Structures are given as structure tokens and as C-alpha cells.
Here is the input.
Amino acid sequence: MTRLTIDRRGLVLAGLAIAAAPHAPALAQKRKELVLAFIPQENPEKLQGDIKVISAWLAKEIGVPVRGFVGSDHAAAVEALRNGDADISFMGALPYVIANAQTGAIAVLAEVYRGSPTYTGRIFVRRDGAIEKLADLKGKAIAFADPISESGYLYPLDIFVENGLLQRGEDPKRFFGKVYFAGGYQQAMQAMQAGLVDAAGVSQYADLLLTPVQQPQVKWIAESKPIPSHVVIARKDLDPTLKAKFVAAMLKLNEPQNVALLKHVYSPDGYVEADPKSFDGVRELAKAYGLMK
Amino acid sequence: MVRRRFLAWMGIVLVAALGQGAPARADIGVETPWHPAAAAYRSMMFLGDLKPVVWDQIGAAYEHPHPAAAVSRPAKIYFESLKGEAATAMVKAIAAKDRQALYETATRATSQLTRQTLAEATASLAAPGKAHQKVLEAQALYRSFGEFIDQADPEAGRRLGRAWLELTSSAGSQGVLGIGAVAPELEVFAGARKAIEEYLAANFEPERFTVREGLTPLPESVVAAQGEVKVKPWLPPGSNLNNQDPLPKLVLNFEEREIKETDLPLVAYGDMLFDSPLIFGEPARSLGLACSSCHNRSDVNQTFFIPGISHQKGAIDTRGSFFNPLFNDRRRGSLDIPSLRGLRFTAPYGRDGRFGSLRDFTRNVIVSEFAGNEPTPFMLDALVAYMLEFDFLPNDKLDKRGGLTEKASASAVRGAKLFRKPFPQMDGKACATCHIPSANFLDRQAHDIGSARPSYEGGRDGAFDTPTLLGAKFTAPYFHDGSLPTLASVVDWFNDRYKLKLRKSELADLTAYLETIGDANEPYQKFEGRKTKFRLNWEELTTFASTFETLLPKRDAKHADLMLETVATDLAADASGMTNAAAKPKVYEVAGYLSDTRKAIVADDWAAAEKSWARFKEFQAKYDEEMY
Here is the structure.
């Protein structure tokens, strides 16, 4: 649950989202079409429009009908992959490793931002404050985004573990005076910028969620290991030929004449083929924090 | 060189953040989508403060989906969900055109809605995912008041800010894929909810409100004790002062002649002023509005929009109550923003040509329209010197006398003949009579062509200055009020209005001609590799700063102060759009040297100013390669 798009759309006004009915299509093991399961976002009308555009383009590229639907949440999308009602879905690295463990779904593509399929979590503080290093945060208040976010909690928290200030799995309140989950990157950053908390543990790009005038008022003092970006995943038993065609088509989105279409699939800068090993760190962390066995 | 301004109010975030930082769009600010009811409430309060009040738009804000809302659902659906008469009372207040009643009913209803949503969150605590969503929805409603509480009652703002953190943290989490669920902390949740609800009820739902002069939602306890305290100027949801994308290409005469702007300090200072909100008064100054906000890169900012002040995108009423109440002409005269390309050939100025002098026009904009202090003669000289450098976009389909070259299409060539053909229905005039090809397609006169109704019986105020047609392909919409969306629609309008009886093919040819003479070889600024928008801004801002070399020997504190504040502020803010994000702290460092220089000047310590200035120059050069 790390992607800014999802977090922002899914958390900031999640209660407002007109939950698109989870119309999982009819059982489709033998269907001659590719079905994409999307996760709901803040603007359902836009998502429906995006699905139409990208499905039509993919159908033309792959040579089979392509259809998309919006599941009610990650669980619905993963369930659709498990029972064959969907072939492809889009999600963050943490839900993916859990989905992989639960259903055998495989990451086929990784999103690229700023030239990289990974990003990091950072600890941000006020530039004019007294916090210069991680140890200065002992007994202080920190805001994370969400307890099930890799860049909005697990990876930033693990920075303190790497620096010997916490043990993995230990209650973070043994180090911090107060731990908040602000509900999103922007809320965590705004709370820190306003001085309500001493630090924010969020995605490396979260400072961009402050106004340009506020951004110079904050700085980051520590950075996590790389976190895999969001991925495109395929169900375990998807026909290899169809899967290969889908991957090839998606990689064509990197070509200059097609890049405009990327805004219809959550707006990455591009895609690369997913490297299965890149998720080992997420798995390790998910296990350490009790999210996986 | 003209650059864009950043918005400076809360709630504006960067598009880059939506996609973990897409560099090409990193400097475009967009609003975080609003809760529909909060969007409507803020809009109604803003529109209710304009004089005359824009009641039709207030009604629309209540009735129809708000364009700045997260979901396309009318606010009234939410307000009607409240128990009692809250929604009906709002409707009555709007129908009665009663400002105080509007403030009271809408404020009560929005506060009640926030509290109702918190109650729903409490009722959902057994299902943490839903409770969490409801808390976030309540927080989105609280946004209606939040920034005003923070400013007017800072202690309460901090207390409530922490309460919201307690709420989001204690509501629990549903985990992901059935794993990692967190149970709610009921006591913490209840305590935080109580703190928020008590404040809302006391300050936004009191039994009696103090009678308000303005409709900014200030806490009642503050107003009762201290009156209507000042808060930062704010704009309604859906406002957009950001640059258009793609960015227009700026053609400056001196640059085309390969003269460096750093060698033209008067022009460079004028360039800085064109981009500085500090020449304006409040509220424009705090909102970051500058000349370049509307006339970005000498062109038209077609995305500029302020509800109630712009009747459509790319338009503004500069003579309403908002920017300068003293100058309020009470006419709701929102006009299409004109391009300033080729400005030295397009006098007189103003849509009806009311100013013969660019200097007079500029002073009027600063002092009368945007409530600025009287500019110094140096400032006016500089602004005029800079604006006189604006050239038209080169167009290789046109020769220097306004004739078509061999690159024009056959259709355009046929259209050129029609353009020059006199029509008896137009008093024997041709299009070219007013839009003289050899005179940059204008005649420097105002004509009443029937594009506007007289504003009163017998009025003769429907004449407008003939606009140039150069670059017109990129300045849609057309006419003084932007009522015609395309050049084809302009041709159709003349055909209908003057009964020219042109055939379909002739209409197409005339349109082709207009599109040809209005074309450009390179209408937009190109960015690639390290030639980023930030690089452009860096070069512009350091050029502005170079004027200090002229101001320093003269010990010109006034003009140095203005320039240094403008450049230091913008440089730091512009860093948010950097592709090379790792170098952001270096930009802040360099901006800091400019701030230090300014502080020294304000303290009349010119020796210290020279030292800080030297450090600025040293590090500007040292970091230059990383600035993209």
C-alpha cells in the first residue's frame, strides 16, 4: 500500500469514493479475453474512462478482447485473480507479496518513476527544528501514513531498526514518545510541517505534497532501503502466450508515441519487467512485522 | 523572460506527488480534491463576499456538482442528509439573498455535517476500515474551517490538529488482504472526537452568531472577543493560477539579437517586476498573483480561473471588489485575457483602447486594479522596457509585410483573397481593412462590430480595440469576452452577423487563412534532458538577481529589497519542481544567501550585504551544473 496515487486516492477521501460495484465478471477460465481488475480510486468516473481507453488500446495490441472492472478493494482484486475472474491487477509491493503467498499470482511488470523501479521511505523533519539525527527523536512524536503501508510505515520504521534504535517487531512507542498514523502521506507531512509532530516517516516524494512555499521548510535526515514500486501482477495460471503478449504490449507504453496512455494506468513514467528477487526485502519485512508467515 | 508563480495557500499540492514525482509535471500545482459539501461551503462564502454578491453562482454551488470536488455529487445531497431544517434554511437564505443568513445556515450545516460524519465513524468502529474512511471524510469536511481556525485561534488549531491525529490513529485499520488488522482504541477515539465536536459546536454552531462584515469562516469565540480578525487571503475551490501546459514560447527582441539580459539591467529588473507579486497590494500579493499569472511568457494563461471573478478559463474581472474594493466598478466585467506579444505595435491598451500609453496602463494595473503602492518611476521604466521587448512568434508562412509565403496551403491562399475582399454588408470594408496585414494585422483603432450589446439604452460602449491576428491560433477563445471558441466560429460569426453569404468552402478557406496567419514555427517552449522548467526558472531568477550589480553601487535599498525578496522566495519555491531533486538543498542554500543580502540591506549594513552577495555568486557558479 505504498503508491502515492493509491494512498492519496484511497485514503484521503476514501469515504467519499463511490465504491464501484465489484462486478466480478462471469467465470472465465475458458473465455477468450483478458480481464483487468482495477483498485478503486478517488475519482470513479475518471477510472472508468481510463479503463475504457487502456482496454481498447491493449485489445488492439494483443489481438484479443480486453475488459476491465473495478473491484471493491485489494482483497476483491486478489480474490478475482485467485478464482480466475480476473487475469491482471495493479497493486503495491506489500499487497503483492501477500497475494503471491496466498494465490501464487506473479508480478510481471514494475512501474518506473524518475528512471527507477524503486523508491525509498524517508524521515522528514522541520528544517528550523532541533532534530538533526534519528537519535534526537527519542521520546518525540512521529507521524506515519498508515500501519499497513510499506513506504508510509514499515520501511521508515525499519530505518530506526537499522540504526540500532529499535528492534524489529518491538513496540515503536518504546523509542518514540508518540506514534501517529495520520491517514496519508500528505496529512503526516502537514502535521510535521505545522509542528504537531517532530517527524514524519513517509515516501521519499512526500515533501512534494506540501506547497512549494512549505517545502523549503522541511528536510529529510534518513532514508530507507529501496522499496519496489507498484507492480502489475498476473494470475498464476494465466496462459503464458497471452501473458507474454500482455507484457510486450505494456512495455510498448514506454515508446514516445504511446507514453500519453500511461496516464490511464495510474500515471507511471513507464514499465520494466518485474524482477522477482526485488521483492525479497518486502517479504522479509512483512514477515518481521507479522504480516506474513 | 517570464515565469509562473506558485500558489501559496494550503491545500495545493503537486501533481508530481500523484505519481511519485513525474518530472515533466512536477511544477504544476493542483488542488487536493475537496469534499463536495466543503467545496460548496467555501465557494458560497467566497462568492457571498464579492460585491455585488454572485447569488446565481451561490445557488449553483449548492445545487450542482462542484468541479473541484473529489466526486461528482451535488453538495445539497449531503446537506439534505442532516436532521432538522438545516438544508431548508440554507435554501431560504440563498433565495432571500441574505448574506448573514447564508453565513449562519451554511456554517451551521457544514459543522453539523462534520459532526454527523464523526458520529458515523464512531458507529463503525467495529469495522475499522469503514471507521477510518469516515474519519477521513470528516477531516475533509473540517477542511472548510481548518486553516481559519489555525490562523485566528492558533492554540485551538494545534489542539484540534493533534485531535485529528488521535482520531486517524485510534480508528483502527482493516489491514491488507485480511492481514495486519488493528483494533480501534475506543477511549482515545472518544476523547479526540469530543475535543473536535465541542469546538465545532461552540464556534460554528452557536445559538447566535455575531453579525459579520465578511463571510470568512472565523471561529465565533474569536469574532465575539476580537472582531473579524485578519487571515491570509484565500480563493475558492476550483481556482487555478498555475501555468498553462505546454508552456508558451517567449520571444524577446534582445534575445533574438543575441544580446544578454544580464547586460540589460533595466529590462532584467522589469522582467523581475513582471513576475513579482510584491508590486501588488493585498490580496493579490499574498496569493502570489503577478503580471505573469495572466500574461504568462507574454502570452495568455488560458487556464487562469477564479470562480466568481473569471466568467470562464483565461478570463478575469480586474475591476471587481476582490482585488481592490476602492476600484470596484460593480459591473461583473470579466474579460478574456489578451496576449501581450508584439506589445509595442498594439497600442492603445485595454480592450476598448482606453490607454494610449503603456506606462499609464501599467500603473493602472498596479495601483487601481491590484491595489499596489505607487510604483517608482524606475519601476515603471523597467516594466515598460521589458514589455516592449515582447515580439510576435515567428511564422514562416508569412512574409514581413503580412503576405503568405509558399508554405501556406492553397486553401489559405484562397482565404487571403476573401480576407481582402470588401463586402457591402460591412460598409464596403474587408477584414483586412481593420486587420491590416502590413501593420501586424491591426489598425490601432476601436470599432463597434456588434460583438457586445450596449450596456444601457443608447450606449455607445460596445467598441473594442482591433486585436492582432498574429499568433491567434494559440490564443483561443476569441472576442473580448472569449465567447467564440475557435477561429472557425469567428468566421461563422462574421458570416452570420453581416450576412456575407459565404459558401461552406469559402468559410473553410477563410478559416484556413486565419489559422495560417495565426500560426507559429515554434509556439511552445521545448524541454528535454537537463533543459527543464526548473533550469529555465534558475536562469531567469539568477538573471533577475544580476541587477543587484547595478543597484549595489547606488545603495538603492528600496529596489534591491524588492528584487531580493522576489528572487529568494521564488528560487526556494521553484526547487519543488526540480528533476534533480537531490540538489534541492543547494537551491535553498543559494536562496538563503540572497535572503541574507536582503536582511543586511534592511539593516543598512552594506558591507555585510556585499559579503552575502559574493557568497551567492560563488555558489551560484559552483552549483550551476546541478541546477535542473
